[in-house]
Design a protein that fits this description.
heterodimer; A: 149 residues; alpha+beta; four-stranded antiparallel beta sheet; B: 65 residues; mainly beta; five-stranded mixed beta sheet; 0% helix; elongated
Chain lengths: 149, 65
């Protein structure tokens, strides 16, 4: 099993998928490396990729629409977590700015259209991924409530 | 497949947003957890939601190490 397959196996988003299904997802992944402080996505911009954090940490920061206040850090995400799922699901603008916190932060980018095509072509894969994405959003909401953010 | 612990971490005593990360080992009080370039000490751990497949879902309270 290669590193990418191991990473995908350890991400909750893909829990319940077969090895063949993971390989199909792995074929879409594009590795991206970031230095500390480098921006991955910017709030308000159009987004067409979902990211899986392979190593390192990212900061998620948000500004309330219409506010001049500085972005507020809402959570740090580490290995195995996903970023950019909201834009993938609702096709809206990025809901937050994502910044690498550590040098050598490594993300796997999944292009939205190719990923959604795969979900539609393989309905088991599509169901499992969308169920897990809903569970991940729920987990993030629970975290935000616990953190008072 | 070995267990994977998905942990919601909240930091006590400072303005920190907390973190969500996966670990291969179940965190226990007294352990240290690394978030970015900082290390924190685990104060308390509780199950957040029931496990699913290999995944266990925990909530950990941390303090500066």
């Amino acid at each position: 099993m290669d590193d990418l397959h191991t990473l995908l196996r350890q991400a909750e988003l893909f829990e319940g998928l077969s090895d063949d299904e993971l390989m199909a997802i792995g074929a879409l992944c594009q590795a991206r490396s970031y230095a500390a402080g480098e921006i991955v996505t910017t709030q308000g911009e159009r987004g067409d990729e979902l990211y899986v954090i392979s190593q390192g940490f990212v900061e998620i920061a948000q500004t309330h629409p219409g506010s001049d206040a500085a972005p507020r850090s809402v959570v740090h995400l580490g290995p195995g977590q996903i970023v950019g799922e909201m834009a993938l699901v609702d096709r809206g603008p990025r809901s937050a700015t994502v910044r690498a916190l550590t040098d050598g932060t490594l993300l796997q980018a999944l292009p939205r259209e190719a990923f959604l095509d795969l979900c539609q072509a393989n309905t088991h894969l599509g169901y499992v991924v969308m169920r897990n994405m809903a569970a991940d959003l729920s987990f993030k909401l629970r975290h935000r409530m616990l953190a008072g953010r | 497949m070995a267990a994977i612990y998905k942990v919601s971490c909240v930091v006590q005593g400072e303005e920190h947003p907390g973190a969500i990360l996966n670990t291969a080992e179940e965190p226990k009080p007294g352990d240290t957890v690394r978030i970015g370039d900082r290390r924190f000490r685990v104060v308390e751990v509780q199950e957040l939601i029931p496990p699913h497949g290999e995944f266990h879902f925990l909530h950990a309270t941390l303090t500066a190490a």
